[in-house]
Amino acid sequence: MQFEKPSGEGLDLNVALDAVFRRNVQARRDAVALVDPPDRAAFTDGLARRLSYAGADVAVGRLAQQLRGLGLPPGTVVAIQLPNVVEAAIALLAIERAGLVAAPVPLSWRKADLVRALGPIGAAAILTVARVGDERPAAVACAAAVELFSLSFPCAFGNDLPDGVMALDIDTDSAVGVEPPVEAKRDDIPSLLTFDAAPSGSFAVGRTHAEWVAAGLSTLMAARIAPHAEIVSALPLASLAGIGAAFIPWLLTGGTLQLVHGFAPRALERANFAHAHLVAPARGLGALLRDCGREFLSLIAVHRGLAALFDLHSHRGAVVDVHAFGEIGAVVRRREERQRREPIPIGRVASAGGAAPPVGIETRIDADGVLALRGAMVPHRPFEPGGEALAIGADGFVRTGYRCRAENAFGLVVEAEPAGIASVGGLRFGLDDLAARIKEVAKDAVIAYIPDPVLGGRLVIETDDRAAARRQLEAAGLAQIILDAVVPRTQARRMAG
Length: 497
Fold this sequence. Notes:
Blueprint: H1 17-27, E1 32-35, H2 40-43, E2 50-52, H3 53-68, E3 77-80, H4 86-97, E4 101-104, H5 111-121, E5 125-129, H6 137-147, E6 153-157, E7 166-167, E8 192-198, E9 201-207, H7 209-223, E10 230-233, H8 240-253, E11 256-259, H9 265-270, E12 276-281, H10 285-292, E13 298-303, E14 318-325, E15 329-334, E16 344-345, E17 347-348, E18 361-365, E19 370-375, E20 398-406, E21 411-416, E22 421-424, E23 427-430, H11 431-441, E24 446-452, E25 456-463, H12 466-475, H13 480-483, E26 486-488, H14 489-496
Parallel strand pairs: 1-11, 3-4, 3-5, 5-6, 6-7, 10-11, 10-12, 12-13, 13-14, 25-26
Antiparallel strand pairs: 1-2, 8-9, 14-15, 16-21, 17-18, 18-19, 19-20, 20-21, 22-23, 24-25
């Protein structure tokens, strides 16, 4: 496949993410780099950490050393399934420093999702935690490793780990950093994978260093995030949205990244920051602002394709809308008027001031009404296997599957999710794949997906025996959000009515 990839207009974007981090370490050793959620001890093991750049560098080096000890060949995929704690950021950097490829997955995935997603990409290890609330991700990783031949090394942070799970730690008091691998220009090799959904199931999307930096620059410029800024992220570091809107801007500005796990207004209220940019899902952002009682320099509201409304309450800072279209790309727009969302442009997306940004994204409405994207952040080649799910044209445009219409000569409106995709509670599923998996274990089940403008969508699984169906689905390793969708057939009929 040959096409001219949009350039950075003089910027060298092809720099390793860990190299950017190490430059920050050299320049700001004693500055605060990473901060845990204040309520960390309430949902997972370990006290809340507050790491300087020097301390974070030691933690990255220690974890990279442990990963190298596994003897994995360079370029091996290592999955990450972590809550929004400092280990999530440390793991992304340590895996790269060890010469491996990180593949973060949603925390809510269970055994079946892990096996189906990690098998095709040959993941050899997974980094997780002993517990998140009542869930036991380390035990789930163990169960996945039993079924998945390639997954030889389930590893976890925390206490009381199951047999067969390698214990990890980032104890900065006893750790000694390791020398990073020799850096090389890797223009066409993915440095970090995330997972998207197709009707037939999940598939990996790979981005190079340059594409990840471009994704972060779009948010950084729109929000006007200054050097050494404070960024608070309520989005997990497991997707284009979370990594591109929070993690990469943190690296590029050498600031402080404060992580918040889940919808936690009280944790935000207790967090130690003065003037920060908040990255959060647009759905529920109004309630978060109302309940936390904090003011921010900017609100970076992430919309999952379909735009969501939220109440700004007393917020007086800037508002930036990040329209994420799966893992393909994101259109970032700064509001000129805080109460009015800017339309998504048709064509090249310009910065807030009207000038063409150094890197960016371009939109197009195809003849069938499907949105296509091209730009410096958009993957320019599939990550095999599963590459057929990423529809890359000869001109570099990638079809997102989202249906849209032109609002006027210059703007577009997104009207519908990709056909065959369910979006429930922040997770996206392929409906064909999901229906087949459910019917395999609960044969009397009838599956329905109801799009919802507030929640994104509702999944309803009708069955005669709810308790039995839940047991069967749980034993098959399906996610809790699927189990929660099971309802007695009589109740489902009332819901439909």
